[in-house]
Request: fold
Amino acid sequence: MSEERNTKAQIRLPIFLALAISAGILIGANFAEPKSDRNDLKAAIYKLQEIITYINRDYVDSVNTNELVEHGIESMLERLDPHSSYIPAKDAELAQSQLEGEFDGIGVEFGILRDTIYVVAPLTGGPSEKLGIQSGDQIISVDGKNVAGTGVTNRDVFGLLRGPKGSVVNVAIKRKNQGDLMDFAITRDKIPQYSINASYMISDEIGYVKITRFAATTHEEFKKSLTELKEQGMTKLIIDLQGNPGGYMGAAINIADEILSDNAVIVSQEGKVKRYNQKALAMRPGQFEEGSVIVLINEGSASASEIVAGAIQDNDRGLIVGRRSFGKGLVQMPIDLSDGAELRLTIARYFTPSGRSIQKPYGGAETNYNMDWMDRYEHGEFFSADSVKFNDSLKYETVKGRTVYGGGGIMPDYFVPMDTSMTSGYVNRLFGTDSSREFILDYLDNNKSKFKDMSFEDYYSNYQVSDKMLQELIKIGEKNKVNFSDSDYKKSKEYLKILIKAHMARNLYDDNGFYKVINDINEVYQQALFLFDEAEKLAFSN
Reply:
């Protein structure tokens, strides 16, 4: 925000707003709160009003009152729980678009390399693809404003390229082997965002669906995937929720309803206010109520992911495979504020069908809460199921009498330790600095003829990343200040080849190609392929 000195009107406006808000809160409190609570609330609001007034009138320096108030709101919410949050107006629209399933824009996946925006891929059917914009194109200016070498950020790019459907944005693009810049007038359009990144048949019987988040369109995407996979003969299903941070609770309920039957409980939630108490049941005929199911989870699976995993586990409908999930069992209600900002306030806790809360403990420093995964790593939880300790007072039973535990995440039925034997800090730095992406874009641009007529099946089965290619990657890494580590390279060489092959597959084909390749080194996925007999026994035994 601006650091310029506030005008009198700017100083007065927040005070007037604060007074209006205070009046509204007091009126609501008079109808909603017991008398003693009303008195406490009035006193607290009056104190806040006093402080803001004194700061604006008497503080030695000029202040940005809006910025001060927003900081106060954020600090106040931090005292409640780790998931209640405030999203300023400038961020709210972008945050909401991540879950709505579509946004208005030009239709490109972009990255920033060497302080320049480049096109990773034009989105299929989007306005950029229709105009012939290609992977590797560099965006030099937008509406006549230079954006190359200016310290542009991801947020800047969203602000420049997104806009109302039907509006036009003019971009100048630099393309390799083209001497002059290429000018495009792109008419923005609705751009779909997909939350199911991969859906394919692993074998004649086993189908695979990768859900990356739970958005407004996820249920419809899931039904479409089920229909297509069943048409290809699917009788067994893997739902991959690894790394899925959650999203809309309703999407999770609807997906569980496609798998559960007979009025099975999916999830319940309870809050201080009775109207937030509810229980969701499997009500509709689902598309996959018969057939074996395995759900993959790990420490990055949270919230709505845990609703799905918990519902399937507690109803003994399928096998949960992987590592203990994140442990987020708090329900947030989005509240639109008058200035366009959004308050996401925790209004309830959710419980799995057996009655367990999977919210992990909180109340200490938020940094400790957010770094819980590091504590798990250091305590060996990612490598041994025995290192996970549950309190016997939080013991519950599934529909068929199996023991499960509350108190922090969903513990899988079949634990798969993390495999770190091939990973290294050097590989992480190559990908963290975008050196790998820079290499892939250059390599594919220089070798178009090699891949022009290559089918994915041929690529998957026969194409190999060569040692020469890795040497080129190392040079790009060194240029980006990623110092070469011989010991890390030897440890991770084969792993690095698979990573590069997978990311190349995404550029050449689609996300299905990426996941088909990368899942060859996904230890949870690989173990699941051998567990369908166990999943079938669990689901269909008495």
